[in-house]
Adenylosuccinate lyase
Amino acid sequence: MSNLPPQPLSPLDGRYSGAVSELGNTLSEAGLNKARVHVEVKWLIYLTDRSLFGSSPLPEDKKEALRAFARDFGQAEIDALAKTEAVTRHDVKAVEYLVREKLSELGLDSIAELTHFACTSEDINNLSYGITVREAVHGAWLPRLRLVIAELRAQAEKYRDLPMLARTHGQPATPTTLGKEIAVFVYRLERQVDQIQQVEFLGKFSGATGTFAAHIAADNTVNWPEASEEFVTSLGLTWNPLTTQIESHDWQAELYARISHTNRILHNLATDIWTYISIGYFRQIPVAGATGSSTMPHKVNPIRFENAEANLELSCAILDSLAATLVTSRLQRDLTDSSAQRNIGVGFGHSMLALDNILRGLGEIDAAPDLLAADLEGNWEVLGEAIQTVIRAEVTAGRSTIKDPYAALKELTRGKRIGAADLAEFVNGLDIGDDARARLLALTPAGYVGLASELLEFLPEAG
């Protein structure tokens, strides 16, 4: 084993890299450094645009060259930073030196001291994390979730009228429709999308202890809180005016808690679909060339949903840990958050991988109407609810003198399998009105689905 060439330690960077590679543009170390360069460059331009400290606005071609430097950040810059950080042992200082080198290359040495001006490392870092996490959520994770919701919505519509024996405690219960059961997950997930879209991505830019002390020492005529707010909001973030050295990370805890909640809804979806497959309500569509078991040729395993379960659990473990850890920092700051935040991408990556598996799994199943119908036909006892409820209504209306309708149906049906003839005989012997009797005799398990189909009208519009 010692002879292996360097290998990725995480399956997200190896076996499953194709499903999560989008996140590498933002939540990787390189993505973070690209954002850091972007923030440093933007701050330089902000200061010179306002002619602070005797500077002058840069010519447009120089501004564009700096913007392009940040925008086109790539392998050459990654390598240069690694070389510099090996000496500085400080990642943000290495970024500062990289920007200074670019200024020198562009003949802008006169403004070199405005690089990282009045900034603590966390001023750059918190804004960079705000930018990268926002882009990961809105540019990669939410679009993948929306694909899953769209597929679920399509299947809910497809099966909205397909009767299905419901299961409570795993036992036969009042029938529903397959489409309505899927629609429940659409509704739950759309609520989470709405809440996640409302999360604020906060940023601070106020110096070593959040007091603007160095800013005021350099120039006490500038309204630095106003400048800070203008700069932070120009990055697409919400300004946080009251912080210690670090931005307090509450927005991250809120976001990760909501994503974990979404993960858990998806986990419930995966376990339900797995169960429907196991009892035959869904048939799996064999994939050409695929193998289900190394020894049992007949097997088609629900691996997409099992894989999703595992990855959702891993994602929640990481995101829950981040949410709990990041809201605490000793006094002005400690570096616990620095180590923890480097795993944001891992938390999102496992969730993205789960979404990919769920989407693929949903595309590889099809309902089995014949089995659904047979299951309903074999469980006429589920109509006991309808019969005892009608009797109670008849008693209240004065058309029946039956005592304790529930007990009568319990005696007939509890723990038993009865058929259409048994129920018809029972109904015909009831002391109820003719209309009620006719309604009950017309009932079948497949027809006893209430408003299941109509309830899909309450689904929100796609987010």
Q: What stands out?
A: The CA atoms of residues 225 and 374 lie 70 Å apart. The chain has three domains: 21-119, 123-287+295-373, 378-447.
